[in-house]
Amino acid sequence: MRIKSRAISKIKNYSNLVKFEHSIFALPFGITSYFIVVKNTEYSYLILINIIISMISIRVFAMTINRIIDKQIDQQNPRTKNRELPLGLVSIKEALLISVVSIIIFLGTLFSFHPICWILSPIVVAVMIIYPYTKRFTWLCHFFLGLVYLIVPPAVSIAITGTFSIEILLMGFGGLFWVSGFDILYGILDLKYDQSNNLKSIPVKFGLSKSILISRLSHSITLIFLLLMGLFLGLQLIYWIGFGIVTILFIWEHSLVKVNDISKLNMSFFTMNGLISIFFSIFTISETLVI
Fold it and tell me: What is the pTM of this model?
């Protein structure tokens, strides 16, 4: 029983290390991209499963590398000092092993994709490794994180067909500004620490009120790109119902964060953005299945 309990505890620590539940942000975008790309062709659930495995494994790699690179920062930051690496619940060796295994799994999925994926895969890996360093030299770090989400839809399309369409690229840009927008809000939580430790972010550069405004602008741009995507694809009623729900959720999200009250920021970050991702995917996929 004691061995079983330790094993369960370790698995829980590993899951917390990579924030496995946060896969809900990116994964639906990848799955949605798959259904858009293959809507006029034959479905392959084996390819879909490999896309899901590929996305999860590269995300686990990215999160683990992020935690390793940021260990010293996390140890000193009151918000992050109780993470698994600073507390020693997961060792650096264990984290490195997780990152190696996850990148091997990611590379293994490429065998089922278009051959060009082998050529492009180093770009994806490089972006994942570079991102944690960006906060050390540029306040545009939030948009570098968004770059990961810009890559997702075209990467899925390239994996299946070797190319991507303007519609898929529009979804990618929507993802870029969506993630950048909520990461700006999330950066508010570290404002004081970042200011005193020479770390860069939009909240540090522009202050609280302007950061909230930039986040709202970013999410407005997200809606513009998703609007254009729907128009270019000729999507019908189901998609536009989903688009309306996503718009309402964005408005609700920003109503929770005020200059004089950021107490609901965590709810804004986790709950609302999870719902946005899920609703966007459900309605978009449903539309592709009926047209």
Answer: 0.91
- Give the end-to-end CA distance of the chain in Å, rounded to a whole number: 54
Q: How many residues does the chain have?
A: 291
Q: CA distances (Å), 170 to each of 32, 222, 229, 266, in order?
A: 13, 9, 6, 28
CATH number of 2-290, picked from 1.10.357.140, 1.10.443.10, 2.40.110.10, 3.20.20.300: 1.10.357.140
Q: Identify the weakest region by mean pLDDT among 25-34, 240-249, 258-267.
A: 258-267
Alpha helix ranges (H) inside the chain: 2-17, 23-37, 45-69, 71-76, 84-87, 92-109, 116-134, 141-161, 166-187, 191-196, 202-206, 208-233, 237-255, 265-267, 273-290
Provide the β-strand partners of residue 261: 258
Contact in structure between 61 and 258 (CB atoms under 8 Å): no
Q: Where are the domains of the chain?
A: 2-290
Q: Is 32 helix (H, G, I), strand (E, B) or coil?
A: helix
CB atoms within 10 A of CB 94: 17
The CA-based angle 199-127-63, given to 5 degrees, is 70
Residues 6+ apart with CB under 8 A from 277: 24, 25, 26, 28, 29
Q: What pLDDT shows up at residue 189?
A: 87
Distances (CA, A) of 93 to 65, 81, 88, 99, 273: 12, 19, 11, 10, 33
